[in-house]
Amino acid sequence: MIALLFISLLMSPSGVQSSRYPVTETERVQQTLEFSGPANHMIELDNVSGAIHVTSTTGRSVEMTANKTIRAESQERIADAKRDVKLDISDKAETVRIYVDGPFRCNCGDGRDGWRSSGARWNEPGYRVDIDFDLRVPEGTKLRLRTVNSGDITVDRTTGDFEVENVNGRITMTDIRGSGSAQTVNGSVNVSFLENPKSASSFKTINGVIEVAFQPNFSADLQMKTFNGGLYTDFDVKSLPSASATAERVNGKFVYRGNSFSGFRVGNGGPEIKFDGFNGDIKVVRRTR
Predict the structure, then answer these.
(1) Which of 94, 200, 243, 259 has the most crowded Cβ, counting Cβ within 10 A?
(2) pTM higher than 0.90, yes or no?
(3) Distance between CA 163 and CA 238 in Å, rounded?
(4) How distant, in Å, are the alpha carbons of 5, 23, 41, 91 from that of 8?
(5) Is the Cβ–Cβ distance between 133 and 153 less than 8 Å?
């Protein structure tokens, strides 16, 4: 099932590669993954270090290419990395799972079928492993994508719902259909819809701009918030009443927590679309083509 197209060991001269990791080895893995059943298909890719690119295909299988780069202090540490860092893949089910496992995992998932189970158990083992993924998925496949470091997440022309998470990188989704969430911490979130979302969706970043483009017939209820930035839209909107503060009893006293989102209605209203920023502008724009 797995075709190893090439393995190359490169001894880089001083000054070209980091002196900390002078030894580099690369490997490419290609695999065709199959779904079972006629519907409810989902691809779940849980990466740690590396980029993710996903595009749609008219086929029925998932075509995966994984480009793996190991940087290490020595050839011995290369061997350690090969032993420690594994690519766990399971298919022949409604959900195809691709999971990068290694000593950096803390096995502290949040209960959602093992999703989001990475942590801070990293003790400088003398190597670094980056895996860049390229996936071609059938139309209608739901996406669950996650990475943490050293890469952006890019999605092109997919038609299923989505749940996309990054930490130190951008999220870019182009000409998509479906509804869902896209969030990162350090990076921008840029999304353009070929068909407006039909159910609640959300877009979030801490450090970066959020820009989402919708079709001209967009109709929804927007909730928008940013701290250091502005809120912009070229749609005609009407302000919605602010949500009332909620009371919570703490140590015998009532504490009132307000909702800092600003609400706007586009068209006749519809699904709630939430935009949550901090250091950066939020732009809700009309697609021109």
Answers:
(1) 200
(2) no
(3) 29
(4) 10, 11, 36, 29
(5) no
